[in-house]
Amino acid sequence: MKVIAVLIPTFSTEYNLDILSGISDYFRGKDAKVVLIQTRIPGINTGAFDYQFCTGFEYAKSEEVEAVICVSGVYASEMPEDKLREILKCFEPRPVVSINLDPKTRNSYVIQADCRKSFKEIVSHLKKVHDCKKIAFFSANETKSKEALERYDAFTAALDACKLTFYPELVFDGAFTDFKAYDAIKAHYKSKNEIDFDAIVCANDMMASGCMRALEELGVKVPQEVKVTGFDDAIVASMHSPKLTTINQDIYSQGYEAAEIVDRVLSGEKMKKAYFNPLVPKFRQSCGCISLDHSLPVYKNVEGELRSDVNDKTDGVMQFVNALGEKNVVVTLLDTIRGFNTLKQMFFSLKYIVKQCAMSGMAIHFFKDVQIIDSEQEFVLPREAELHMFYTNQKNVEFFRPGLTVNPHEKIFSARSMEDISGIFILNPIFMGEANYGYMLCRINENKFADYNVYLKIIINAIAQAYDYTGKIQEGRNLERENTDLALQSRMDELTGILNRRGFIEQGQAALDLLQETDTSGVIFFADMDDLKKINDTYGHEMGDKAIMLQARVLKDIFRSSDVVGRLGGDEFGIVALGMKIGYVEKTRLKIQMLCKKVSIENQLPFTLSISLGAVDLQKSSVLKQLLSEADKELYKEKKKKHARK
Q1: Which residue, 451, 456, 447, 442, is CA-closest to 33?
Q2: pLDDT tens per residue across span 165-204
Q3: Measured between alpha carbons, how far is 641 from 635 in angstroms, rounded to an integer?
Q4: Count of C-beta atoms within a 10 Å radius of residue 274
Q5: CA proximity to 246, closest of 197, 214, 200, 277
Q6: Measured between alpha carbons, how far is 98 from 93 in angstroms, rounded to an integer?
Q7: Are the C-beta atoms of residues 641 and 622 closer than 8 Å to each other?
Q8: Which of 41, 99, 431, 507 lies most in the core, judged by the most C-beta atoms within 10 Å?
Q9: What 3-state DSSP class applies to 340?
Q10: Are 471 and 534 in contact, with CB atoms under 8 Å apart?
Q11: Overall pTM surpassing 0.70 (yes/no)
Q12: In sequence order, what are the beta bridge partners of 359?
């Protein structure tokens, strides 16, 4: 299955949306995985943490990616061409299909729009049909982008071809934006009488829109007094009043053609290296070709034929319905996300999120460690990412932490998720501020890329917050466990591994309290090893410590796990035997004596372990210390009996 990466700065402009629609429509239903990656423009941060999107370039370098489509014209409008070419060179030897800028890599293909012919047609139309003699121009040369310079050169060449004079003082710069074009006109002209041109050609539709707003404020009537044309045929062109005469680039076809070239190259076909897309002028109301009273969406072509201008962009009712529907999706998505705090809770909502957002699958990957990056730091893609959760409705399969890791340098699609599913995917980094957690892959069903942009922003914020919250819960559990371990350590005897005096008193008293509540029998033992001083004096303290350790083991083996056994200090031990009756004490003494002999032989001791026990039942007191004192008295009696026998 072919895997193709599409590099694009953002989904939020009309030009980009048309390109993506063409690419997606070509590949939909084909045996290919097309991964759309928003990268923003390196070095240009419109948002405080937009640089996080630049990590997308690294995923496109994955060995799994066989070819790259780059919407290079948008990048080149705001960054040096040589820097962009350096980035594209990193994808060699993969085929790189570039829309607008020639990458000049070993295996590259370029689709360019030839604007010279269309500008000549626009200028010729203004001269011949509308008798315009002095034509101004709105450029974007200050951006130094390839598109801006090409359109400026095409305009000047069109003036020469039409034998019209070029006026340098009538060249304004609007940097491709509405408000800068508006400001430029207002800065040059203070009144209607100062306007010294009869037409103005703009290098894009946004500048044409700003220009018309400024002219209207000056009292200049468009098209009666000044003709205005644009370039791009953006939504603003058909929605503006008067409707804007412009040049249609057929951007959708450029995306479609780029997709076809990649597909055919990967299939082994030999393709041309350069392609030129024809541009189509659309003459509307702003040049006077269509009456201002005409309400139907129409335009005239170069031959003067009237054509319908109805499409998805100009259908206002459908735009309203779609916008309303997307608002409802966002509200529902926000409600769903409010329902979870942890990653596991999110997993239970994953299939509903996928369905709400017109997706058919989602896979979320986390790095082993959160990456903290800033705008000045080069991102180094980790070599391990864990597939944390995924869902696909195509197979109706969902997993939470299936134990799969993937090296994104080699593959971005992990096994058992969407590895063998074709379609259009969006790859989005998961980040919050400077923290980069990993990446997500979403399989999308529709071409509503701007809407997906909103959904993904909401989703990645929720993932990051759930990740942090889950981490804090885990930290709390770890701290609690550490505190428990520390507390336990402070109550354990280092030599024997059983409770020390403090631990024995605390746990033993708690056990007694429970016994008092349930009216259950029990026996308290106070024990003292026999002849430990003699062992130390004869065999040394190291052997004495070994004797204490083995004696503790004997007591642990004799008494049940529910009983409380502790070392009170030196060679003294205490036992709370839950449920034992006082009549069973003698049998317990015999069992201890027998096990002491066995342990002594097994460990080849030069002596036989021996211990004396004093025992009392719970009738004496409910306070452990008091009971130990009573048991100590019984121990004294036991010791006297042993000495008498000797």
Answers
A1: 442
A2: 999 999 999 999 999 999 999 999 999 999 999 999 999 9
A3: 10
A4: 10
A5: 200
A6: 15
A7: no
A8: 99
A9: coil
A10: no
A11: no
A12: 444
- DSSP-derived pairing of the beta strands 385-392 and 274-277: unpaired
The DSSP element (H or E) to which 429 belongs, if any, is strand 423-432
Helices (H) and strands (E) in the chain, counts: 18, 24
Instruction: Dig out the tokens for 264 from the structure.
Output: 């055919």
How big, in percent rounded to 5, are the helix, strand and coil portions of the chain? 45, 20, 35
The conformation of residue 371, written as its DSSP 8-state character, comes to E
Cβ-contact 587, 499 below 8 angstroms: no
DSSP one-letter code for 170 = G
Q: For residues 548 and 536, what is the distance between their CA atoms, to the nearest angstrom? A: 11
Cα angle 103, 107, 108 (rounded to 5 degrees) comes to 35
Beta bridge partners of 407: none
Q: What angle do CA 410, 57, 112 make, to 5 degrees?
A: 120
At 313, the pLDDT band (50, 70, 90 cuts) reads low
State the Cα–Cα distance between residues 243 and 294, nearest whole angstrom. Answer: 10
**DSSP string across 529-566:** ESSHHHHHHHH-HHHHHHHHHHHHHHHHHHS-TTSEEE
- 52: tokens are 């996080």
Q: What does the angle CA 179 – CA 184 – CA 186 come to, to the nearest 5 degrees?
A: 95
Residue count of the chain = 646
- Give the three-class secondary structure for 443: strand
The residue type at 138 = F
Give me the residues paired with residue 601 across strands. Answer: none
**Residue type at position 308:** S
Instruction: Write out the two tokens for 225.
Output: 């007094």
How large a percentage of the chain has pLDDT more than 90?
A: 64
Three-state SS annotation for 286-326? HHCCCCCCCCCCEEECCCCCEEECCCCCCCHHHHHHHHHHH
Q: What is the pLDDT of residue 277?
A: 84
**Residue 321 pLDDT > 50:** no
pLDDT bucket at 316, cuts 50 / 70 / 90: very low
